[in-house]
Amino acid sequence: MSRNGVKASESVSSTNKDVRMGRPKIRGVDIMRDPILNKGMAFTLPERQILGIHGLLPPALLDQDQQVYQAMQNFYRWSNDLDRYIFMMGLQDRCEKLFYRVVTENIDLMMPVIYTPTVGLACQKFGMVFRKPR
After folding, report:
1. Separation of alpha carbons 110 and 82, rounded Å
2. Domains in the chain, CATH or no CATH each
3. Closest residue by Cα to residue 85 from 99, 98, 97
4. 100-128: buried (b, 16+ CB within 10 Å) or exposed (e) per residue?
5. Which of 25, 96, 98, 125 has the fewest CB atoms within 10 Å around its CB?
6. pTM
7. 86, 130 contact by CB (below 8 A)
């Protein structure tokens, strides 16, 4: 027996139960908070129901191409590179796949924003720019 009164074999079998049934271990809002797992509005209806995120997203479905278009529209909305940098870092914190897709499709436009010289300015204004630890 372990310290909590549950046999070691019982705890192992209960943790493997979800794997055998094909259910993911992370569900609901935890998927939405994980930038590696989050696909934004690209989750299909069956995926939303299986993952327990149905109702946490708007009812519309947007594929990644449409999300890239919307991200670029938001990117152009900002008037200076520091604001664009903050927007891109927020995108990376929400959905890494979308962030890297936007960057790779617009590499010439993105590199001055997510790298030199804007990162130097962001370092100088770190207290104003900081949003979330990575």
Report:
1. 12
2. 24-62 (no CATH), 63-133 (1.20.1370.30)
3. 99
4. ebbbeeeeeebeebbeeebbeebeeeeee
5. 25
6. 0.76
7. no
